[in-house]
Amino acid sequence: MLIAKSQSGKMMDLSLKKKSDIQALKKKKWYCPSCQEVVIIKNGNVMCSHFAHKQKSDCSSFSENESKEHLLGKKLIAENCKKFSIPYELEAFLPDLKQRPDILVANKYAIEFQCSPLSISRFKERTATYQDNGYQVIWILGEKLHLTSKPTKLQRNFIYLSKELGYYLWELDVVKKQIKNNYFLVATSKKLLRKEKKWNLSHVNFLQILAFSNQKNEKQFYELETEIELFHQLGQWNHQLNQRMPKEMFLQQYFYSKRLNLRELPCELMLPSYKSVLFQEKELILRHAIYELLMNKKKVTKEQIYEKVFQIFKEEEMESYLLVGKRRLIKYHVSLYLCFLLQSGIVIKKENTFIFQMKKLNIRQIEKEILGIPLKYVMINK
Ligand SMILES: [Zn+2]
């Protein structure tokens, strides 16, 4: 921890103190602002100077195993706020929430620098408490949790969604003093696609960095070779079904009940080949629901589509992602799929109504798919 209380009850913040000043402070008595136990200053050469409980404690706010990385990350953000005159409070105690973010910035952003794995239930509890109390929680991931390949179940929970960036997540590298936004996260059957934007915390205002998620950015695109991608996807399913992998077995079951075979799905459902990193294989269920509704009714409104899809995902088990929200997640993917159907001429739109055209798609006609943000699929059918 970087703050402690003096004997007179005044708060001391070590993050901005010089080494020479800290030596003098060591002689005074300090107390944990959370459990009120005695804490001491540690200022060795490895870690940045910090307070630690004198005796082993089960203090609820400050664990004793705070890593060098975690201390340094908090300090870097605090120094940035100081430099750019942004109001902040390190390890601020929020009494209504009984929670202590690593640093509260501009009285609004609860910053959590997460350096070690935590349970998803703990993540949800903390996130929900911030959200319910009007704070915007910004989870920034430490080295152990940085994205390498496809996001793990835990990493998926730290993903945000915005119009400008699509799916994104924050990382901090304390050695390089670099904060990174991984954005436009999309999965193909082979790998995770992403773009990156980096800032040095010593030079760029932290609030400007955070604002990146909503400001208009340059358009970004990915391009996929459709046939190759689909061939690969089918091969993967084949293998996974042979191995009786639960997710694929579930999908297979689902499509059997619709008189379809996962290995031979029509390309109206297989495309676009880009998949949501959060929905994953469940995206096919969403697409099928929309496609079936259009095929049966011929004319439907967006509201009817939402109603049907929400109905299905009420019954279907679905992971909930607090930073995105279930409704937003579903609506985003409905709009992407409708966009694809419109662009490939399977539906046309008249005012608020989508009208099904009896058009069959041929994969050979779609050599390449281009996915772009903000928000829209731009498909080329030539
Ligand atoms: Zn304590």
What's the CATH topology name of the largest domain?
Answer: Arc Repressor Mutant, subunit A
> Over all CA atoms, what is the radius of gyration?
25 Å
The percentage helix is 25-40%
Largest sheet, in brief, is: 8 strands, mixed
Instruction: Give the distinct bound molecules.
Output: zinc ion
* CATH architecture level-2 label of the largest domain: Orthogonal Bundle
Please state the average pLDDT score: 90
Q: What is the total domain count?
A: 3
Note the run of SSEs as H and E.
EEHEEEHEEEHEHEEEEHEHHHHEHHEEEE
Query: Would you identify the CATH H-level superfamily of the largest domain?
Result: Winged helix-like DNA-binding domain superfamily/Winged helix DNA-binding domain
Q: Separation of termini?
A: 60 Å
Task: Tell me the overall shape.
Answer: elongated
At the first level of CATH, the class of the largest domain is Mainly Alpha
Give the number of helices. Answer: 11
The amount of beta strand, in percent, is 15-25%
Q: What class would the helix/strand composition place it in?
A: alpha+beta
**Poorly predicted parts:** 378-382
Number of DSSP strands?
A: 19
